[in-house]
Amino acid sequence: MAVPWIASLVLLLAWGAWGQVEQCPGYEAINVLEADSYLIADLVLIGNCSSHSDDIENLRLLVEYQTDTDYQAFQIQEHVLPRPKSQNATSSTSGLQFSFTQSPFSFTVTRASTGDILFDTADTPLIFETQYVRLRTRLPSNPNIYGLGEHSDDFRLPTTKYTRTLWNAESPMIPARSNLYGAHPVYFDHRGKSGTHGVFLLSSNGMDIKLDATDQGQQYLEYNAIGGVLDFYFLAGPDPADVSKQYAEVVGLPALVPYWALGFHQCKYGYKKIDDVAQVVANYSAAGIPLETMWGDIDYMDAKRDFTTNPVNYTLDKVQQLVRNLHNNGQHYVQILDPGIHRAGDYSTYLRGAQKEVFLKADDGSFYRGIQWPGEVVWPDWFHPNTQEWWTDEIKRFYDANSGVNVDGLWVDMNEASNMCETTSCFTSASAQTWTTRNGIGITKRYADPIPFQGVPNRDLFNPKYRIQNHRPTGDISANTLYTNITNADGTHQYDTHNLYGTMMATATRNALLSRNPNLRPFVLTRSTFAGAGRVAAHWFGDNASRWDYYRITIRQLLSFASMHAMPFVGSDVCGFNERAQENMCARWALLGAFQPFYRNHADTSAPPQEFYLWPSVTQAAKKAIDTRYKLLDYMYTFLWKASTDGTPIASPLWFFYPSDSNTFGIQTQWMLGDALLISPVVEDDSQSVNFYLPDDIWYDFWTFKQISGGGQMHRLDGVKWDEIPVHIRGGTILAMRTESGNTTSQVRSKNFRVIVAPGRDGTARGELYLDDGVSLDVGGNRSEIVFSWDGQAFTANGTFGYETDVKVERVVILGGEGGEVKTEEGPWGLRGGFGFRL
Ligand SMILES: *[C@@H]1O[C@H](CO)[C@@H](O)[C@H](O)[C@H]1NC(C)=O
Ligand SMILES: *[C@@H]1O[C@H](CO)[C@@H](O)[C@H](O)[C@H]1NC(C)=O
Ligand SMILES: *[C@@H]1O[C@H](CO)[C@@H](O)[C@H](O)[C@H]1NC(C)=O
Ligand SMILES: *[C@@H]1O[C@H](CO)[C@@H](O)[C@H](O)[C@H]1NC(C)=O
Ligand SMILES: *[C@@H]1O[C@H](CO)[C@@H](O)[C@H](O)[C@H]1NC(C)=O
Ligand SMILES: *[C@@H]1O[C@H](CO)[C@@H](O)[C@H](O)[C@H]1NC(C)=O
Ligand SMILES: *[C@@H]1O[C@H](CO)[C@@H](O)[C@H](O)[C@H]1NC(C)=O
Ligand SMILES: *[C@@H]1O[C@H](CO)[C@@H](O)[C@H](O)[C@H]1NC(C)=O
Ligand SMILES: CC(=O)N[C@H]1CO[C@H](CO)[C@@H](O)[C@@H]1O
Questions:
Q1: Which of 51, 550, 663, 781 is the most exposed place for a label (fewest CB within 10 A)?
Q2: Residue 292 annotated as catalytic
Q3: What's the burial of 731, exposed, middle or buried (CB within 10 Å: 0-12/13-18/19+)?
Q4: pLDDT, tens digit, for every residue of 648-657?
Q5: Residue 125, strand partner residues
Q6: Three-state DSSP class for residue 429
Q7: Is the peptide bond prior to 417 cis by the omega test (within 30 degrees of 0)?
Q8: Which of 776, 777, 782 maximizes ligand 7 atoms within 8 Å of its Cβ, making it the mutation to test the pocket?
Q9: Nearest CA residue ID for atom 5, ligand 7
Q10: 534 falls in which pLDDT band (50, 70, 90)?
């Protein structure tokens, strides 16, 4: 497939007394070479700037409508984030036009069809120093800018005095206006009728992205990075979902999760004994609330060490018994792993890693040490050639299906990486020497062979002069994480690769699970993410609190990740992680979470228990929520599959469907789940009323099938009970639902379907259903991709039917008859081939 929408601008280092930013004169473009599919020029510094670090005097400008590159400045390793392959698009087919001014150098990117200028750097000269890179683009007035996760701020980003810092950090209580666990340097710029585009800066370097206006009122977005290259991808859209798809093609399509991952999950830090866990499972069953997956937080470990079980409270045989019981009931089990490896002579995981030298090293060649749950720890260097082998081996040993803990998936936490060492020196070099000598692990050389891309030499990798606004105490980039001056095994530095750490751990974990079970789709949940992390893992929104504010925030987090960061399988800690969950809030959250892709109740050890069965009203809400979710599992699964094939978002804001309706641009308390369902939860504290917006279209109440004219206005519902959540079906869609729910997702898979047709204004409707075995990594031809359509009189089911199933469509229900009644055509029809009928 051609990718005419990618225009990658790579500003790269060819080779190369602090001043004031205001005096920086910028660069001049010379030696311009232009061809059909690319443009190359040299950029030479016009006059000294040196605002925060040394100027790089000569840059290389490469505009590719495609090509490969090889330059020396730090660039993300190809194996960490594979770039899209050359597509030979030309400037004339790209839909975007690049043009530039020679001196001082600036450039614009224009949408060819409309002449709309999407990116324009003319207002301020480019600054390109060894440790400070600044580039500013104009924005339209009152711009609609979204993305730039991970954050807990408004979905439509504030446009004045707003800074998004991208520097992965452990972030309890997900503080506002702060860098959180993940870095996704992509924004969507929505311009109503004239289209949507995206801009992705492929850089893992720490940066502040500022949204503001000049004194004259000119809006702008400004990158302030502490290194790297300016490798831009302009995503032309023009439909909002096109931008989502184009972005997913650049960073990689998200992995499809196994079907069971869509079930309801329960977790808590603070299940002190395995018996507590067994009780929770039994109590869910007794309450009649379907529990699909039980999770093990660090409680299961011995002294909080990975790959161990607590010899008293979580003996291996009892954990194995629990897992067997879960599996016998069609349920699942997932455990947590942390990257901090306890540095102790009696800990074999550490000793095997040390033998293979897989840990990051300090400048004296000893293993770099910090503090994490087990105490003194070392951290894997995911760039070391032995690390994957060691990690896979540890996972295969401990999670051996017969002799170990037979988990169904893994959860990687604290992987920003979080370091509890508060000061710059928790350890002295001397104690390192003593310890390593005593245990016979010598100090070994660092891997510092020069390789391409390792970064410009002679930088201050510990205290760069430009300080990004890291929210951690002290604000230093090394605060509560790994020292940024550490050299990775491939010669690069944490300074440049910090934001990749969590995703690399998730990747290594996925690879290990694949090695353990080559034919099964792995399930990995990660806290820390970088652009493209959806290729390997799911994500939850981190350590929020049990408060209504956080319940509301989950909606914007969902919208950002699912529609703009190519990470469809996301969700919050349902009922909140920190603090005491209140009954009404937990009931509402049980419903809200059921309509988000990843659905897990999780709480901190310091928080009181909050399992759904603990309150009658929450039990009732959860049963109804799960019952409905499970009937919709295949609808959700179909959208997860679509996301994995072309990046179509599973959840999106209303403006993705009504891009010209400016009333929708700021909505962040409602979301579209797939293309058919609009979820409009009660969002006010303790309220039973909800005000929600319905665009000018035909809608149907999901619960009553009553037709509603949206009218492009606010609607109000009062008396929304604690087990109710407003949901509407968008006219023009067809939805396949199971006729019944089940206690587990595998029970659901044997139920028949009922197909709901919701005609749009023109009387027609369309929908899809994807079926496969739900677990195989490669299902080959054993899958069905069914398209349902309704033309006003005739219904057809067509497509491919490679998945063998005895499940049938029992009936087709057509909404919106005159007077609002519903027509039902009784089947059954098998799902082994196409079928249809005419009314
Ligand atoms: C920048 O300053 C250095 C000495 O500080 C001088 O050698 C160099 O020519 C100057 N470069 C420009 C482009 O003015
Ligand atoms: C792009 O062009 C090169 C050189 O003409 C050719 O070898 C390559 O196959 C083309 N790639 C695609 C994807 O068309
Ligand atoms: C499970 O339910 C029993 C009986 O209601 C109760 O005593 C126990 O505390 C519950 N255990 C957990 C872990 O929720
Ligand atoms: C489902 O769970 C309920 C309540 O726990 C139980 O009564 C019922 O027998 C279960 N159904 C199946 C098919 O397992
Ligand atoms: C087992 O759990 C109890 C609390 O239930 C705790 O006091 C004890 O330290 C734990 N034992 C071990 C070996 O972790
Ligand atoms: C990093 O910088 C700190 C502070 O200057 C220093 O103590 C440490 O040895 C350096 N580490 C490496 C790996 O260079
Ligand atoms: C599809 O299913 C058939 C029959 O079960 C099996 O023989 C075949 O290996 C499957 N193909 C793939 C690619 O899994
Ligand atoms: C399915 O599609 C094929 C080809 O487009 C068409 O010939 C056939 O009539 C369709 N079947 C139904 C049931 O719509
Ligand atoms: C997103 C948000 O509101 N975060 C707040 C959570 O609570 C902490 C502590 O009360 C605040 O610092 C955050 O700003």
A1: 781
A2: no
A3: buried
A4: 999 999 999 9
A5: none
A6: helix
A7: yes
A8: 782
A9: 782
A10: very high
